Amino acid sequence: MKNANILQSRIDALLNVLSEDVLILSQLGTIIFSSHNESPIPWGEADELTGKNLNDIFPGDIASMLQGMIDKSLSLNQLMVKEVLFDPTVIVYLQQRGMAESCWVEVRMAPSAGDEPSVVCRIEDISRRKMAQRETSQIQRDLLTGMYNRRALMPVLAQSIAQALRYDWTCSLMLINVDSLRLINDQRGWDVGDQILKRLAESLNSLKRTADFLARVGEDGFAILLPETNAEQGILAAKRVSSMVSDLSAPHSGTDIHFTVSIGVATLSGEVDSAESMFSRAEDCLQLSKQQGGNRISGSE
Ligand SMILES: Nc1nc2c(ncn2[C@@H]2O[C@H](COP(=O)(O)OP(=O)(O)OP(=O)(O)O)[C@@H](O)[C@H]2O)c(=O)[nH]1
């Protein structure tokens, strides 16, 4: 009995230092025990929750999703984890207790030993983590086309170079730049220019191999990192892009506006190469294609 008391006081102390909510739920979704301390979720007093069922707190779809987690956790005897949006306009129980802003929570359920089947459920507010994830992915994406940007490309290129050097492979970088986008914008309107960039992005995305990495770099162009691709194969890939672009167009006043691209391909040239030096060589090749009148492919090792 003494031991049981010590254990209980340790469990109470443990629960007191947790900022997450902890519930024990029966197999049928009834709250047997609840503990919440500094949680931003206004559940009401701990006593108020005990004896309530998930259906008393959550609308039908969320209650049955949580019940599904209980069922699975008990039948598979394993931890279940899900991210759930707690929106007070949907979860009226929480709105009535003062919740004004939505928050994302991580729900973890683990089967618990005992006479009656039950699960221990931890609910943690992960809104900040979610926001940070969203911000990170936004700063790595181009807003117009949704593709990765140069900031995202450079570390991947550096990694690909490191791998190629280590395993005695190679890799290539292709820069694809729309010819005379300024003129198209001026003559047909910025919307047409936008359409061209979007269609080109979508088509490059479908054309590239799964292992390739596509990014929008600069105002009017894209880059594709081609792992395990030598100079000759890089030029072949560029030819495929060029021929694909000849079938692309953007609609404008009932007509189709066609466009061309210039391409520069750089291939890894040895131990001294870096992401920056390879990118800069690809830019030089692109420049050469532009100087020769555009709609051309230039490559360098
Ligand atoms: N429609 C559209 N235009 C953009 C976007 N970003 C930049 N631009 C424009 O794209 C044009 C790029 O101009 P330049 O760098 O001179 O290139 P260009 O006219 O394609 O000439 P070349 O590359 O030499 O063929 C500029 O007028 C930019 O204002 C965009 O997101 N959408």
From TrEMBL:
Its EC number is 2.7.7.65. Residues 169-301 form the GGDEF domain. It comes from the Bacteria. CDD domains: GGDEF. Coiled coil: none annotated. It is an enzyme of class 2 (transferase). Gene3D superfamilies: 3.30.70.270, PAS domain. It catalyses: 2 GTP = 3',3'-c-di-GMP + 2 diphosphate. This is diguanylate cyclase.
